[in-house]
Design a protein that fits this description.
The chain is mainly alpha-helical. The protein has nine helices and two strands; from the N terminus they run ααααααβααβα.
Length: about 190
């Protein structure tokens, strides 16, 4: 933390230093995606958490990045305003309710089912065992990024930490409420 503060202060004078501490895993792109998935699970896919996933730099599904971001931006515009419920089904209803001549309708109708299917393993009701939650998060993260989340230095570090967490005995937790998953995962990572 001290290195981060000193580095930030030096930037005021346009002095760039490389702190040797490195970047914490949860502040890397890989870590932020894992936490975004846990948050989306916990809040039943609120528009904010859903868009954090859709616009994340590692997420492309099986599309070109530019095409994926175009659909994510269209979804962002659609979800602005009053909420029409929670969950993936509420967003699907909102897309279906678009006027037939809406310029974004065709793109979203083609894209949304693919995105929703990738997120489906995270759709738990009220409580879940951490083992099942972490397995679902890993599955969805791999599918959304074509396994890029586990590649390069940060990805390998995350994979190593993930293996350590998921092979640990988490049975003492039993079933926990969904809102417990993000802070639990944050502490474990």
């Amino acid at each position: 933390e001290l290195a981060l503060r000193v580095s930030a202060q030096l930037k005021r004078w346009q002095i760039t230093v490389d702190d040797s501490a490195g970047k914490p895993l949860l502040q890397s792109a890989n870590g932020t995606l894992i936490m975004a998935l846990a948050t989306a699970m916990a809040d039943h896919f609120s528009p904010v958490s859903l868009l954090a996933i859709a616009k994340h730099p590692l997420v492309t599904g099986d599309m070109e990045r530019r095409d994926w971001l175009d659909r994510a931006r269209r979804l962002d515009l659609l979800l602005r305003g009053p909420s029409s419920g929670i969950g993936l089904a509420a967003i699907e209803r909102r897309i279906d309710a678009m006027k037939p001549d809406h310029p974004d309708r065709a793109a979203l109708i083609d894209w949304w089912p693919v995105f929703a299917k990738l997120l489906k393993p995270l759709a738990f009701e009220d409580s879940v065992s951490p083992i099942d939650a972490f397995a679902a998060i890993a599955e969805v993260a791999g599918a959304l990024t074509n396994n890029a989340i586990w590649k390069r230095a940060q990805g390998r570090q995350l994979a190593s930490e993930w293996e350590e967490i998921t092979t640990s005995d988490l049975s003492a937790f039993g079933r926990v409420e969904l809102q417990t998953i993000p802070p639990l995962l944050g502490e474990l990572l």
